[in-house]
Amino acid sequence: MPIFDLEQLDTQSIELIRAALPLSLSPVIAAIGLTYTLALVNAFGGTLFVPPRSRDKGGEETFSAIESVIGFDAAIELGRLFKSEEFSVPKCQKAQKVMRDIELVRDFDLLTKHTSARKTVNLLAEKYGLSWRQVEIIVQRQTMKEANPQAIPAVQHADTVSARNAHDALTQLAGAGMCR
User: Which of 80, 100, 154, 179 has CB atoms 3.0–4.6 Å from 173's, for a disulfide?
Assistant: First the structure.
């Protein structure tokens, strides 16, 4: 997952990234911030560990590994947050894809200032390990989002609707005769 300087991103891009992260990371984001959370996911995604509260008490190696990624203060906050409980760091594949797409579109915009769109698409396909058609779709999708930003919140939150909310919505639609 690329690590962005979030200050270089527009609010819409930051919200797309946030929406793609699992809700289980909300307390971590609140404790150490989005940038450090993304760095943590990048370094430790898919792993399970107990964040130590300090360098001592047998957690020196784990603390040092975390500190090298997010810094001393954020590592301390992470230890305080989990209070000796296990932390399963999600891989955040959806967020990785969103971040890749944001970076790809930024690269596309930069490269097309000096190179043809066709050549740029081929260069980006090679760089990101995608087909030329996938690159075109990503760039077109971003262009549509920029043209109609109001459509984005509905798409973002569609993935976060709980099963209970989905069941309730279908029950309401069925009661209104709109769903059978």
Answer: 179
